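Please study the protein below:
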Amino acid sequence: MSRFRWPPPPDGGPRTHFPGPTAPRTGRPTLPAPPTDRVQTQDGVRLEQLTTGTGAPVTVFAHGLAGDISGTRPFGSAVTGRRVFFHFRGHGRSDAPPGPWTFGDLARDLRGIADLAGATRALGVSMGAGALCRLLTETPDRFERVVLYLPAPLDTDRPPAAANRLDRLLAAVQSGEAAAVAEAVEPELPAPARNTPAGWSYLRQRVEQLQTDGLAPELRTLWSAPAVPDFSALRAVTAPVLVIGCVGDEIHPVAVADRLARLLPHAELQIYDRPSVLWNSRRELRERISAFFNTPAP
């Protein structure tokens, strides 16, 4: 298996250890991130957001644990209307109020952004899906359409691999060493993408973002209580919900997606047959999500 070696090649191409042609050198330096702004929610927490597109409807996108705005943007590339991407507390340039934190806090972050933007649709990734489920248990009719992508466990039974990965990433960020951050981020990439221009581009962006903005250690406290205290409350959700899971992902057990699809009364379940869906089935995934969101309301 090819492994990253930091720093990355200056031309973005794969590094080899023999003479002669290697591969197309199509990598580029990381482009500047689009300008964002910070908005204050009713809880007084200032959250970073990026708005793209125009008009109605408005869709809000919630990232996963230790994720960022750039990681959720591909999900909205073909979604009509205005799209609002944001950073939860402890991520990016958003505030990190004193902990411990719960999924109730994340749900309030999500609600605050959605209310300010007038969002009627929402997509949550992993931890973001957990925050979205928590919000829906409190307000079942808040959104007209919902996508839950690779939902994280909603109880405290979290896979050890997930906790270990977060601990490693937090330690790397705290060290301030780019190589350590790169090594901690590497498992986010499927093996075939490593040591490729696309892989290097992703790695550069992640390392730069994490070194610039950091990551709050309070994130460790999130799973001290269930994301959703009462699973039966999800049966009251009125919106159509697309639940997306995959086989072979140790961080996001497929059983979580299956359970959610059985609980939500208007759910559609899509299970992919291998992990790293955004890398391995990117076009099909984007088309599925956009078709779901862009379908006119009955």
Residues 13-28 have pLDDT under 50 and may be disordered. Residues 37-156+225-294 form a domain with the Rossmann fold fold (CATH 3.40.50.1820).
